[in-house]
Structures are given as structure tokens and as C-alpha cells.
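hiii, so i know i said id send this last week but things got crazy w the move. better late than never?? heres the sequnce for the chain we talked about at the cafe, plus the structure i predicted for it. fair warning i was half asleep when i ran it
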Amino acid sequence: MLLHCYPYEREAGYLAQAFDNVYLDGGLSINYLGARAPAFIARLLEMAPFGKILYSSDGFGPAELHYLGARLWRNGIRRVLGGFVDDGEWSEADAIRVVDLIAHHNAARVYHLDAPQR
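okay and structure toks below
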């Protein structure tokens, strides 16, 4: 798992594409980039396979940082993927599928969260 990735998000995306066992999580960068978070999210999506990107708020410390990370990620991913849909490049179903992968399914698969408890 490549964490944070900034300012090497494109390189991290390439590594995730090139190697079966490499995944990435750009969560920490989102809090620091603020209003520029959508540009970072767009760069994550350039090279990394959609099935290899994991969401995180990377909140630490005060609860407000968890909220801020989640809010910035939701706004950023909506702006980026919504732009793809508005431009006619993606269908709405494709955008929803990618959000579901990044927001939940990838982490569940990578961390075996859906596995039955023993």
C-alpha cells in the first residue's frame, strides 16, 4: 500500500498499474491540498487502475480532520467524475461503479473485510 503519494501520485499510479500487489491511498494529501484536492484526485485516476485506489480521510487527531478529509474527498471525486459524465466521456453508471470501488470495495477486498469472522 503506497500511502499519501503526493507529489508523486502519477508515479504511484504507474507502480499500481505495473505491479499486481501495489495499491495506493492518497488520503493525507487531500487534507493538505484543500481546494486543490480535485486536481490531485484527477491525477490519481490518470494512471492507477480504479481497482487499486483506496479512499481514506487520513484523519488523525481532532475529529474535525476526519470530517474535513471525508468532505474534501467527496467534493473532489464528485467534481472530477461529474466532469467526466458532463463531458460525455463516462456514463453515470461508470462513475458510480468507480466511486463504489474506491470508497468501499477495494478496501474490503485488499484488507479481507468481507471475510467471515472466525
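btw The longest strand covers residues 2-3. thought thatd interest u
miss u guys!!
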